[in-house]
Amino acid sequence: MNRTAKRSAGIIAALALGAGGLVPLTLSAAASADTGSYFERTATYPVYQNHPEGAAAETAAEISTVSADGQTLIYTDALSRMIGFVDISDASNPAGLGTLPLHQLGSAEDEPTSVAAYGEYVFVVVNNSKSYIDPSGRVDVVHIADRKLVHSIELSGQPDSIALSADGSYAAIAIENERDEDAGDGGLPQTPAGSVAILDLLGGAPDEWTLREVPLAGGTREKPVALDQLAQAGLDTPQDPEPEYVTINDRNQVAVTLQENNGIVLIDLPSGKITKAFSAGSVDLAGIDTQDDGKLDPSGSLQGVPREPDAIGWIQDRYLATANEGDWKGGSRGFTIFDSLTGEPVWDAGNRFERLALSQGLFPEGRAGKKGTEPEGLAVHEYRGVEYAFVASERGNFVAVYDLSDPREPKYLQTLPTTNGPEGILPIPGRDLLAVSSETDEADEGVRSALTLFSFGAATPQFPQLSSDPSAPVPFGALSGLSADPEAAHQIFAVSDNAYEPLIYTIDAGQGLVTDSLPVTEDGAPAKLDLEGISARAGGGFWAASEGAEGAGNTLVRIDVDGAVAERVQLPQDIVGTLKGQGLEGVAAFGAGEEEEVVFALQREVGGEDFVRIGRYLPASGEFSWYGYQLEDAGDDGSWNGLSEITRLSDGSFAVIERDKRIGENAKLKAVYQFALPEASASAPNDTVPLLEKKLAVDVLPVLERTNGRTQEKLEGLAVAGNGQVYVVTDNDAVKDASGETVFASLGAEAEAFALAPAASTAPTESAAPTASSTPTDSAAPSTSPSSTPSTSEGKGDGSAGAPDGAESAAPDAGETSAAEPATDDLAQTGVGSLWFLPLGLVLAGVGVAAALKARGNARGH
C-alpha cells in the first residue's frame, strides 16, 4: 500500500472511531455524542475586511442582529461610528456587504450602541450625548434592503441595549445615562438617573410608532430620588439606577439589569408598570485565582462579592439568567439563575465558571486581581426543543454553553473559543447557527475584532483539545515546548514560558489531559527562567532551554526529578552575546552518562549571520559545536521567520518547527522540517558553520486552520511520544493580546510524518565527537561513518531538503512517491492527511479531506 493509500485508510479508520475521544464528565447527559447536540465553529470573519479602509481600520464588532430571512448579519461598530452588514448565507464563508456610517444618519460623532432587526427594518440605537451630564440619544429605523433612513425617534437620554418582543408589539430600550468614571471617585450617584423606554409598534408605518418612558427614579432630572420599590429592594444607590441590559419574555415582561446598583427590575410592557425589583445579592467565592502574580493559583477566596449583573435572559418565561461581570464594587465571576417570582437565586455558578477557564487554558491571569474571567454577554434560546444558555467571558475569550432543560440545575455542555472580547451573542436557531461578535481590535498585536459563526448539530465538541479536570483543575497556559516521557508511552511533558512561574506539565497525550504540574525551583524558590524547550533525560530529570532577554541570559538548564535546578550552562558568549532576545527556543537531549548529548535551537539569526544556529552540547566535556539552518524567506512585509522547537526522531535525525510571526488570515508558514546532523561542525568562533539540508515534513498550517478559528501565531511545541505519535501545541500567550486558544493536535504516526532511515541504521552506536570544519562549505557532506548520526543526502545548494542518510535504500512501491522524497508541491504526501484532533474525539469530517489538503498544497505552491 502506498503512502497516500495508507493515509486514506487512516482517515476512514478515524471516521469509524467516531466519538472515540474523552467526553468530560461534566457534559449534559441529554447532549451525548449520538444526538448531534454540539456547536462547532464554521467561520471567523475579521470585520476590518468589511471596512472601507481595510486592515488599517480600527474596528469593534459589539452587538449584532440578523435579518428576518437569517441571511444578513448586522453589527455595531462603535469605534468606526458605523454599522456593518455581512452576508452569512454560507455560514462557512461570510462575505462583507459594506457599512453604513452614522454620519449619514445624523452626525459623525454619533455612536451606535445596539441593533435589532424588525421585519424589513433594523433599529439602530444611537448615543449622541454631548456629555455625561447632558446625555441624549435616538433610535434610527433603517430599511435593510437599501440602507435608507426611514424614521428617527428621539430618546430622553443615553441608550444602551434594545430588545424586541416575540409578538412584534414592543421594543424596550435601556436608557442608561452611564456614570463618568473619572468624576469624583467614579462612583454613584451621578445625575441624571436612567429609565426604560418602550416603543409601541402596534401601528402601521414607523412614523406612527409611539414612545413611552418608564422612570426608574423620582424627583427631577437634576435631583432624582429613589422610588420606593427600588429602595425597599436593597439596591446600592437606588436614586441613580443605570439600566444596562433588557430582555423580554413571551408574556411581554421586561427584565432589566441595574449593574452598578446590583439589582433587577421587572416591567409589564402593556401597562408600563414596575412589577418587581430585587437585589442580585452577593456570593462568597473560594478556589479561585485572586492575585495578579504570574501564577495560575486557584487557592484564593473572596467574601460577600456583589454579583453586579450585565446581560440577562429569560428562561421558560419564569427564570432569569444573569452574567455577573461586575463594574463598580463587584463581579462574581460566574452567572446566576433567579426565580422571577421570588427574586431569589435558584442556582449560582460559584467558582465553576472560573475553574472551567483555568482547566482549559483560558484564564486571564493578568485580571485575577480584578474580575477574573468577567462574564459579560449572555443569551438564552431554544435549539431543536432544548433551551440553552450561552455565557461569554470577556477576558477569557470564550462562550460556555449550558443545557437548561432544568433551569434549577443547568448542565455544562461545551466551550466555544472566540476572538478577544466577546460581547454580543446572537442565536439564529432558524438556521441552527450562533454568532458571536468580539470587540477587541489591536492591529499592532495581530488581535482583530471579529464575528465568529458556529453551527449546531455536531456529534462531538471541537474544543478544548487540551484540558484538565475542571473539578480539580491543573491550570495551564503559554505552553512553549514538548518532550516525550521515556517512562510512559502515552505521556508527554510540556513547559510554559515566563508568562507564569516555571512549571513542567504532564500530559496524557492520547486523551489530551493535563494531569499534573511540577514547579521548577532554585534554592527553594521559583526559578527565574523563561522556559522555551524541554527534553526528558534517559536517566530521569530534564534538560530545558531558557531564553534570555539578551545573549547572556540564554541558558541550558539541567533539572532534577523533583523540579530543582541542578545546573545552568550558559551558551558561549562569543557566539550568542550579540543576541537581543529571540534566543534559545528548543532542546533535545539523548544518550546517558558520558555519551549524553544536548542539541538545541536558537530562534533567530545571530548578528551578522544569515542563518540560524543549531547547537550541540556535550555535558561530559563541556564542548559546544554548531550547525547552520537556513530559514525560509519571510518576505518584505515586516514579518520574520524563526525556529521554535527541536525534537530528535527515532532514526537519529531531527525535526524543528519553523514559523512566521504572522497571525490569522495573514499566516503563511507554520511547518515542521527535518534534517540530520552531519559529522562536520563548527566548534570555534571563526570556524565556517556547515549549513544543514532540511526537508519539509509537515505543513501544519492546515491543522491550525482546521477548526475555522483565527490562526494561531505561535506554533511552539513538537514531540514524538513513546506511542509513535507526533504531537504539536501552540503557545496561547497567556490569554494576553491573543485569543488564548490552545491548539493541541496529533500529526499522526512518526513514520508517516517523517522520512525515516531504515531500522538497520538506528542500532545503538557510539556517537562521533563533533569536529571543526577544515574547509569552507555550504552544506554538510554525506557521511558513511557507522558511528555518526544520520547525514543528509544530496540536493544541497538550491534550498531543497535532503533525506536522512540511508533512506534511499528503501525502494518505494511502483507508482508510489518515495518516503524519502515527498513531492514538495503535494502537501497530501506530507502526513497531514491522517490528522485528527484530541482529546474529545474530533475526527476529520469526510473522506474528501485528503483531496482538499492536496488541492490546498498545490495552491500554496510548496
TrEMBL record:
<keyword id="KW-0472">Membrane</keyword>
<feature type="region of interest" description="Disordered">
    <location>
        <begin position="289"/>
        <end position="308"/>
    </location>
</feature>
<dbReference type="InterPro" id="IPR027372">
    <property type="entry name" value="Phytase-like_dom"/>
</dbReference>
<dbReference type="InterPro" id="IPR011048">
    <property type="entry name" value="Haem_d1_sf"/>
</dbReference>
<feature type="compositionally biased region" description="Low complexity">
    <location>
        <begin position="758"/>
        <end position="794"/>
    </location>
</feature>
<keyword id="KW-0732">Signal</keyword>
<protein>
    <submittedName>
        <fullName>Alkaline phosphatase</fullName>
    </submittedName>
</protein>
<feature type="transmembrane region" description="Helical">
    <location>
        <begin position="835"/>
        <end position="853"/>
    </location>
</feature>
<keyword id="KW-1133">Transmembrane helix</keyword>
<feature type="region of interest" description="Disordered">
    <location>
        <begin position="758"/>
        <end position="821"/>
    </location>
</feature>
<dbReference type="InterPro" id="IPR015943">
    <property type="entry name" value="WD40/YVTN_repeat-like_dom_sf"/>
</dbReference>
<dbReference type="Pfam" id="PF13449">
    <property type="entry name" value="Phytase-like"/>
</dbReference>
<feature type="signal peptide">
    <location>
        <begin position="1"/>
        <end position="29"/>
    </location>
</feature>
<dbReference type="InterPro" id="IPR052956">
    <property type="entry name" value="Mesenchyme-surface_protein"/>
</dbReference>
<feature type="domain" description="Phytase-like">
    <location>
        <begin position="475"/>
        <end position="733"/>
    </location>
</feature>
<keyword id="KW-0812">Transmembrane</keyword>
